[in-house]
Amino acid sequence: MPTEKDKFWFPVKTYGWGWGLPNCWQGWLVMAVYVALICCAAFLLNPGRHPAFFIIAVLALSGALTWVCWLKGEKPGWHWGKE
């Protein structure tokens, strides 16, 4: 029987604020797409020649990842271990 935590793609971290590693295939797929798009941006935008475009791309992709984590993850907050 699935638990409450199993319905989230991204569980909260045990210590600190934010999300930890994904706990289902959908979360891992999101992470794989994020890494692939960062690699494509590095290849296509050539950060050595156009650092501003690369930084904008990384910020946009990271913002999209944060949005998905916010929608499909547990509510973030400060955690100080197992409570």
Task: Characterize the structure shown.
The protein has 83 residues and is mainly alpha-helical. It has a domain of 50 residues. Helices cover 52% and strands 5% of the residues. The protein has two helices and two strands, in the order E-H-H-E. The protein has a two-stranded antiparallel sheet. Helix 1 runs antiparallel to helix 2. The two termini are 23 Å apart.
Short description:
The chain is mainly α. The chain has a domain at 23-72. It has helices at residues 25-45, 51-72, and strands at 15-16, 79-80.
Shape: elongated
Q: What is the oligomer described by this structure?
A: single chain
Query: Can you list the strand order of the major beta sheet?
Result: 1-2
Tally of individual helices: 2
User: How widely separated are the two ends?
Assistant: 23 Å
Poorly predicted tracts of residues: none
* Approximate helicity band: 40-55%
Structural class, from helix and strand content? mainly alpha
Number of strands: 2
Mean pLDDT: 89
Largest sheet: 2 strands, antiparallel
Strand content: under 5%
How are the SSEs ordered, and which strands pair?
Elements: E1 15-16, H1 25-45, H2 51-72, E2 79-80
Antiparallel strand pairs: 1-2
